[in-house]
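Narrative of activities, Objective 1.

The group set out to show that a structural description can be obtained from nothing but a protein's sequence at a throughput compatible with the screening campaign. Below is one input-output pair from the validation batch, recorded exactly as produced.
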Amino acid sequence: MAEESKSLELPFTTRVLGQEGALRLRDQKITQTIRSQKEAYKFFRKRGTYVRVTLDGEYLYDARITEVHRKALKYLDQFDAEICGFDYLEDLNHALKRAGYRFVSLADYQRTYAIEFLPKREEAS
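Output recorded for this entry:
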């Protein structure tokens, strides 16, 4: 089981997050990501599983999946923006467009999912 969790990856890119978002991911300050159904399906039954968080292909840390739930983009709010690593909802919307949600209005995307996760903390000695 531990081996399986090490192979499951939650990838991020600087192109989508931007420089500030990438720094926040490195600092373990991001706890949610918005993904398409195609990207999120592998996490549907993985609540409690540890995954490898990567940025531009570089391993950063392990994180535990805490929740995966459907969330239409039109229902994203300021809180979602902040836990996704952005200061403002408008910044999150721009990042979603860079990620590929640009062919129709963001409000028209219905099959998107919020994947919530917590970085694994080192055990105190």
